[in-house]
Amino acid sequence: MFVRKMTPSQSSLFGEIDDLQDLTFIERPIRRSLKTAEEIDKLTVDEDLNDIERAVYLLSSGEDVQRASVIINLPILVRQNPAETFRRVVPKVREVLHVAGADMQLAAAGSFLTVLQDDIVLIQTHTHSILQIVLLNLDHRDTVVSNAWLETLLSAIDALPKDTIRQEILSPLLSKHQLSQSVLARLASCRILGKVVGKFESSIVKKDLLPLIRSLCQDVEYEVRACMCRQLENITRGIGLDHTKVEVLPELVELAQDEASTVRLAAFDTIINLLEMFDSESFTDEQHLWFLEFYKKLCCLGLQHENGHCESQTYPLELENKYALVRRNCAYNFPAVVLFADPNHFLSGLYRTFSSVCHDPEISVRRTAAGGFHEVVKLLGPNVHYIHKELITLLQDDSLEVLDALLNNLQETLELATSRGEGAGPESKQVNIPDLVPALVAAEQKAASSLHWRVHEKLLQCYSCLPRVISGDQIYFRFFQRMFSIITTNNVLPVQREAVRTLCVFLRYNRKQEQRQEIISKIKQELAQGRSYWNRLRYLDLCEITIDLFSKSYFCKHFLIPALELVSDPVANVRYKLCYMLPKLRSVIKATDKHLLQQLEFCVRKLLCREKDKDVVVTLRKVSLSLLKRGHINKVLELLERQQSEAKLAGDKQSEKKRE
To answer: Nearest 5 degrees, angle CA 631-CA 632-CA 633?
Structure first.
């Protein structure tokens, strides 16, 4: 019976009927997974119990999966009946958690956080009950569980009133002798202090919290010192600048000289993050000088200077990676340090360090320096010529990653680096950067020879700013021919199109008539009349761009006719693109220019009469009808209708022949 009812697809899926016998093994695990009568009896709950009674019963006598279910649904019970839930259910949850596994602990942490953050109005007794459970489990032996309860507490602090935080969280924290606590507990104390400090007035923080903060900053374990150090930023913002100068800054200076590199790095990061808060009077001259000297040492950590260059020293791989990370962080924060040191003192105070960062043997450090180069340029202002040499160095870097990072803001960098600040525009008040043009040419050749075509495309995009950076003659003699070469020989379409756009920008800002005419002549010869149909397609791309960059009359004078002549191109793709562009080409022709209108109409009629390619014909008809509706072309509608009727008649004759 079963075989007769199977569909063909089912038959092919299961194979012959004999093969079904092999599937009988499936029954065995199914039988094993069934519950026995005794097990079912254990999982059965009296249906007459209400939700609270059922929760209490399951927490007391249920299986682990039932207890976990109650804990997960605890927020729902609190919303429905908060008084009874806290009187009867929560104490049972506390008993269960005392012996619960990690999964149940994590579920409880999430449920209690939901209750604390919910819009339910909890009385003080309820909040106390939850916080007691949270604080009790902060010392759980499983670090994953203890961290989960800590995150619950930290997230709940935002939703708790100030008095509750002081009574339920801070009072127990301050009453404990910290050194008698475990390292895990002291680390939790650091994070709690960093979180609650913003809830209280600066006077309370100074009186009650700062002694404990100082104690943790001087803890015997470096992990605790580093953790507390990273919380000093929040504490500083909570107590204000005046107290920071007296209370926090000395601790930071001491931590920055700690024997443990982890602590020193934490101190350095904290100081950098706080620089924006400090006014010019925050540091004494001695502290100011100490910080800058310390920063300079970090920039060269793990390196030795020979003949003015940074050379790597031999260290174990792990230590070498740590040193590189420190130097990379220094490079990232260099603009902030320039601001701190005063840009007017850059040459005497930070230039050698910046040059060292730009020449760092580690690629990631140089890449980071390149990514922030434009920020340093903006800060230096009229003194930007100090780092012209480093700009050339990064442009000529051996790593394409460094060049890629520099390209993200290269246009802004070049314009600021070559401007005297006396106006903008092509060839106005430009500052000459030695070796800039050779460096740009070398960078483009390096990108072109790599497999990373997106870097090449990005560099060509940056080239569009060159008319505002270097002279027209430099562009004409060093870059025009290269753009033609990329357009005609490169195999990547986005790169070709970006080279076309850059070529159009160069032409737009060229002020010498002879050079312009030569360029236009070369465009027509190598692109519009090029032997490769790819070149002719790029000419049509160029037309689309020049319509936006040049005036309509200039486009019609120099570019329109060669485009329309492609109506006879032997390659269908070229004719297809021309059809697609017809409305845009028509939009640049003035209504009074009868000659060009006739040329366009002739182009359309020629395509309608001769075109055989199916895709081109479909596109042509759509475009022609669009032009006709707008009244752009006359005398074509009759031809189009005649062509359609002839095509229909030919189709009818063909059908009749087939029937015969």
So the answer is: 100
3-class DSSP state of 176: coil
DSSP string of 283-335, one letter each residue: S-HHHHHHHHHHHHHHHTTTEEEETTEEEEPP--HHHHHHHHHHHHHHHHTHH
> What is the spatial distance between Cα 354 and Cα 373, in angstroms, rounded to a whole number?
10
pLDDT in tens, 486-528: 999 999 999 999 999 999 999 999 999 999 999 999 999 999 9
Q: What phi and psi values does residue 509 have, to the nearest 5 degrees?
A: -100, 5
Residues pairing with 304 in the sheet: 311
Whether 397 and 403 have beta carbons less than 8 Å apart is answered as yes
Q: How confident is the model at residue 428 (pLDDT cuts 50, 70, 90)?
A: very low
Provide the percentage of residues in the chain whose pLDDT is more than 70.
83
* Average pLDDT of every residue of the chain: 82
CB burial string 72-111: b at 16+ within 10 A, e below: eebbebbeebbebbbebbbebbbebbeebeeebbbbbbbb
Quote the DSSP letter at residue 95: H
Closest CA to 351 of 405, 388, 307, 302: 388
8 A C-beta contact, residue 357 and residue 402: no
Q: List pLDDT tens digits, range 592-645.
A: 888 998 888 888 888 888 888 889 888 888 887 777 665 555 555 455 555 556
DSSP 253-284: HHHTT-SSHHHHHHHHHHHHHHGGG--TTSS-
Residue with tokens 């790599």: 450
pLDDT of 391 above 90: yes
DSSP string, 42-94: HH---TTS-HHHHHHHHHHHS-HHHHHHHHHTHHHHHHH-HHHIIIIIHHHHH
Is the C-alpha dihedral spanning 155, 160, 163, 169 positive or negative?
negative
* Pairwise CA distance, residues 607 & 576, whole Å: 10
3-state secondary structure of 350: coil
Reduced to 3 states (helix: H, G, I; strand: E, B; else coil), residue 585 is helix
CB 127 within 8 A of CB 166: no
Q: Are 56 and 92 in contact (CB under 8 A)?
A: yes
Per-residue pLDDT band at 439 (split at 50, 70, 90): very high
- Yes or no: say if 230 and 272 are a contact pair by the CB < 8 Å rule: no
Q: pTM of the predicted model, to two decimals?
A: 0.63
State residue 567's pLDDT score. 92
The span from the CA of 351 to the CA of 626, in Å, is 63
Per-residue pLDDT band at 658 (split at 50, 70, 90): low
What angle (nearest 5°) sits at the alpha carbon of residue 363, between those of residues 362 and 368? Answer: 105
Max CA distance (Å), the chain: 108
Tokens of 422: 């006396």
Residue, of 454 and 137, whose pLDDT is higher: 454
Report the alpha-carbon distance of residue 359 to residue 376 in Å, rounded: 16
